[in-house]
Design a protein that fits this description.
This protein is of the alpha/beta class. The protein contains 14 helices and 16 strands. It starts with 5 loop residues before the first strand and ends with a helix. The protein folds into 2 domains: 6-293, Acetylglutamate kinase-like (Carbamate kinase, 3-Layer(aba) Sandwich), CATH 3.40.1160.10; 300-445, VC0802-like, CATH 3.30.2130.10. It is globular, with a radius of gyration of 23 Å. One of its GO terms (biological process) is lysine biosynthetic process via diaminopimelate. ATP binds at residues 9-12, 221-222, 232, 257-258.
Length: 448
């Protein structure tokens, strides 16, 4: 049975500066059911850390990056006096950061260590902001409970180990304190720091909620919920008050950056509701994502994911032959390449691969192409965007604005419909995709 606890996560924009942090602290103060607070690095910090670990910088540039990160923390600290325990922890952490950042070469583990500092700094500072409002607050190092494998930069959580550690170490603190901890980071079985991938703090919050049996996770960001499309792209986009787990997972997977794609997994496993709202305007409400929703049928949102690759494999041998697809997928799997969409004809198969900076797969390297090329003709197309229409029971035909008519206006490279009841997706040229999304939104979602 789930407890009455709420886990609240505050993203980079919500903890960008002192004013933003203070707003978040007030949200927590107003809701006594919030017992765990998961913070991200202040906006811009992880980007600096990523530049640092990319190892393209010389010593002077590294110093500059360290300075930029410390400046962001310093600007917030200028409004606060840290309690002794927090000050001591912050100083030690800052020292470790500066030392590691000066190394001219870093291994994968050290890269994750560097990437972890943004969230670690935020948790010291935010704890003080909360204490200054009179909230009994304990800072907690999430690496003690969020256990992962050693796949640095994209670690996979160990759900059972996390649950065990959380019930031993975290749950006992919750009756008397609000616990402030870090998103995005964890530790492997050797105690080495790992990270969950860019945007992973949402996922951390959901994993912690699962581990402590929380009743809900509140994701506080800079928009008043999940919108019918990215509100930055379309000023007529509207927040969606309710989404099912399936619809929200599809939106996140197909590019709605507001939620990390894996966030819904732990929530749906344990029936934990997820709320998405704006820390700048909490009174405006937001989106509730729940197991049971009386979802209306039809399209509810349109999303896009840029930097997709289309791989077309053609061979007359495929005709009436068995095992051809198995051969292709075995090769791709040997190179750790995960396939997104698949369509086939008599003699060819087209696959899409996610090449976004956040994607798990390695570069589509020549050795893999050579292996495929040994038994079929291979074509690779880049600079494509996957556009997805998300909803329930999406129909291609019917109604005034039938999808077939709307889609016929665009130069579509591949279309996938039917594998999921919740989406219809297709590829378009990347430089046209914003227009495509705006046009679909206008024709199919702004009419009502
Ligand atoms: N469908 C959508 N609904 C709401 N926001 C979206 C959507 N698609 C993309 N976004 C973008 O997601 C951003 C919030 O995500 P992110 O920048 O990761 O926030 P945070 O720093 O709080 O984690 C919004 O500013 C918005 O531009
Ligand atoms: N700081 C990490 C983790 C994260 O989730 O951040 P945010 O909540 O700001 O998206 C990143 O930028 O990737």
């Amino acid at each position: 049975m789930n407890s009455q606890y709420v886990v609240a996560k505050f993203g980079g924009t919500s903890v960008a500066d002192f004013t933003a942090m203070h707003r978040c602290a007030q949200i927590i103060n107003d809701d006594p059911s919030v017992r765990v607070v998961v913070v991200s690095a202040s906006a811009g910090v992880t980007n600096h850390l990523v530049t640092l670990v990319q190892q393209k910088s010389n010593e002077a540039q590294r110093l500059e990056l360290v300075e930029s990160v410390m400046q962001i923390q310093g600007n917030i600290l200028a409004h606060l006096t840290l309690d002794e325990d927090l000050q001591e922890g912050f100083n030690t952490t800052a020292e470790q950061f500066k030392q590691l950042a000066q190394l001219p070469a870093l291994d994968q583990q050290q890269c994750d260590e560097i990437l972890s500092f943004g969230e670690r700094f935020s948790s010291y500072i935010f704890s003080q902001v909360l204490r200054d409002l009179g909230v009994s607050t304990q800072r907690f190092d999430v690496r003690e409970v969020l256990k992962t494998d050693s796949n640095f930069s994209k670690a996979t959580p160990d759900v059972a180990a996390t649950e065990k550690a959380a019930s031993d170490l975290l749950v006992p603190l919750l009756d008397d304190n609000v616990v402030v901890t870090q998103g995005f980071i964890g530790s492997d079985k050797y105690g080495q720091t790992t990270t969950l991938g860019r945007g992973g703090s949402d996922y951390s919050a959901a994993l912690i909620a699962e581990a402590i049996g929380a009743k809900s996770v509140h994701i506080w960001t800079d928009v008043v919920g999940i919108f019918s499309t990215d509100p930055r792209l379309c000023n007529k986009a509207k927040p969606i008050p309710r989404l099912s787990f399936d619809e929200a997972a599809e939106m996140a997977t197909f590019g709605a950056k507001v939620l990390h794609p894996a966030t819904i997994l732990p929530a749906s496993r344990k029936g934990i509701s997820v709320f998405v709202g704006s820390s700048k305007a909490p009174e405006q409400g937001g989106t509730w994502i729940e197991k049971e929703t009386t979802s209306q049928s039809g399209i509810r949102a349109v999303t896009q994911r840029k930097n997709q690759i289309l791989l077309t494999l053609k061979s007359p041998e495929m005709l009436l032959a068995s095992g051809f697809l198995a051969k292709i997928f075995t090769i791709l799997s040997n190179y750790n390449i995960s396939v997104d969409l698949v369509t086939t004809s008599e003699i060819s198969v087209a696959l899409t691969l996610d090449n976004a900076p956040n994607a798990t797969r390695p570069e589509l390297d020549q050795a893999c192409l050579d292996e495929l090329g040994a038994f079929c003709h291979v074509t690779v197309e880049n600079n494509l965007t996957l556009v997805a229409m998300i909803g329930s029971e999406i129909q291609l035909q019917g109604g005034e604005d039938c999808l077939v008519d709307v889609l016929s206006e665009f130069d579509i490279r591949l279309i996938c419909h039917g594998a999921s009841r919740h989406n219809l997706c297709f590829l378009v040229e990347q430089n046209k995709s914003d227009l495509v999304v705006q046009s679909i939104h206008q024709k199919l979602l702004e009419a009502a």
